[in-house]
Structures are given as structure tokens and as C-alpha cells.
Amino acid sequence: MDEFFDLSADEQKEALAAVASASGRPAHLLEKDIWVVWALNQLFTSAHAPHLVFKGGTSLAKAYQVIRRFSEDVDVTYDIRALIPDLVKDKDPPIPSSRNQASNWTDAVRGRLPELVNNEFLPLLSSAAEKLNAKVRAESDKVFIEYHAHSQGTGYVQPTILLEFGARSTGEPHEMRSVSCDAAQHLPDIAFPTASPIVMLPQRTFWEKATAMHVFCAQGSFRGGERFSRHWHDVVRLDDAGYADKAIADRALGKDVADHKNRFFVEKDREGKQIDYHQAVGGALHIVPTADARSKLQTDYGRMVDDGLLLDDAEAFDTLIQKCESIQTKANEKK
Q1: How far apart are CA 57 and CA 66, in angstroms?
Q2: In whole angstroms, what is the distance from residue 58 CA to residue 72 CA?
Q3: From residue 313, how far is each of 66, 68, 238, 285 by CA, in Å?
Q4: 276 in Cβ contact with 115 (< 8 Å)
Q5: Which one-letter DSSP state was computed for residue 268?
Q6: What is the pTM of this model?
Q7: DSSP per residue over 277-325, as a string?
Q8: 137 Cβ contact list (under 8 Å, min separation 6)
Q9: pLDDT in tens, 270-303
Q10: H or E element, residue 120
Q11: CA separation for the pair 11, 185 (Å, rounded)
């Protein structure tokens, strides 16, 4: 059986075109998905694999098939206990006791994580990518894998894989999951990359996303730039799959997320008041934006739909918001 990356450029392009025709998926997204799985395999077969946890929207799509959208970036947590053991010591859970301690831990992570990325992950990935005619570069705690794409979309999705490393949590709760390429089922005679990453449980991902949405609604903007509408889509899909109910019922998990974010991710609302994550998980969740914030969200959602990132027929924006209203009501009733 031929390996996908052993095929010639023309053969790879032909294979992608065949899968695109069979699946109805854009070829440029199928190709990027292959590189995502390849990157996961490189990370989770490395010596650092025991300290890594795959999380975020891409983990929901690839490890749990919960969301039906193309998720292109890879979010990875490096266990804070392994990165700054001299500061965490025996704290369980590893949450700072004060704002001052949180600041010290954050400073240490910001100093050591980029060093780890540049000294360990960049050489690892560069060596493997060079054999595939791809380039790898690092910027602080981010790694960019730039490959030669065989097809292009609208420009919303670039031929670059972003690996974004974080290290201010343990990534728990988590479990090992099997990951494969979307193209594999359509071309069984070709061996596509596979991976077996340790993955954050969807229940925790729900609260991570819901609290980020809560901050957006309080501030009217999203610090991460464009493509933020994915969080609203993902939370609705998590609800469809039953994970939202599990997360909402798990009050201890919600508290863990709030404890962590209140120390490490301090944010203020439009009026300059500190946002209390405990209120968000304890009956005052706000994930339905209004006014200008709603317009920004709708525009970003439209761009995501136009580039084919949603693998099924995209629901109307108003329908998405109505579903978020139901989730918000359900979460706030479960005090």
C-alpha cells in the first residue's frame, strides 16, 4: 500500500481530486486535514508526548467527530507540572494561590515554553517536514508548518498548520483517542497519516469555549482576531452530542475551569470591571451577543460558511443564535 506522502505531486493532486469528488469536500481542506494528522503524529510519538494534551475545536472534530466543520489549527497543552516543577511543587490541583503567584508562574511559562518550542519541537518537526518539502518556523510558543498546497480555496484557509502551545494547565481530564485523515475512508488503497494523541475531554472543552464566549459578550470583541464564530458553532454541536449537558451537570469541572481562568486569564468588561468566571459557570453565563458584537459575530460566521469550513449544510446564523440562547438558559438554570 502506497503512503500518501510517497506519491508524486501529480499523484497526490489526483488523489485529493478523487476524494473531493467522492466526498463533496473541498480539496484544499482535505489536504490540510492530512497535514494536521501528520503533525499530531509527530508530536505524540515524540519524547514529550507524555506531557502533551490535544485540545480545542480540532480535537472535537478529529478525536470525537462531535463537530462537523473543518478545524485547521492544533491547540496543545504542555503540562505545567512538567514545565515549571520548581514553582508548582506539590500543589494539587496546580492553581496559584494568589494573583501574585499566578503572575510569577505565567512569567516562568512565558520564558520557558518558547525555549522548549524552539529547542525541542522546532528541530523535531523541521527534520520530518524537510523530507516532505515543507518548511517549519517558530514564533514564541507557536509553530507554523508551511506546505505546498495542490489547490486553493477563497483564501480564508491558508496552506499553513498552526501549532499553538500553552502550558498553564494540565489538560485534565483527558484520554487517548485514535485520529485518522478524512480522506482515508474514500481511498482505502492509500495509507494516510494516523495519530493517537492524548485528548482533553469534550466536557472541559465546552466550558473552555463557553467562558471564552462569555468574555466576548462582555467585551464586544475577541482578542484572538477573526474566526471566533467557531466557538458558537462548536458549543451547539457539543450540545447536540450531549456533552453540554454532561458539562453543565459537572459543577466541580465548571469550578475547576473558573478557578483556573480567574487566576490565569483575567479579563475586564466594557466598563473596566473584572469578569468573574465563577459567575459564568454558576448561573450567569452570557453567550448570546447583542448590538455591534452580534454583527461582528455574524460577519465572521458568514466568512466561515463561504469558505466551506462547515462540512454539512450550514444552519442560518439566527438559528445558531437561537440554539445558543437555549444552551445559555439551560446552563443558568442548573445552579
Answers
A1: 9
A2: 7
A3: 15, 10, 17, 28
A4: no
A5: B
A6: 0.90
A7: HHHHHTT-------HHHHHHHHHHHHHHHHTT-BSSPPPPHHHHHHHHH
A8: 122, 143, 144, 146
A9: 889 999 999 999 999 999 998 888 999 999 998 8
A10: none
A11: 18
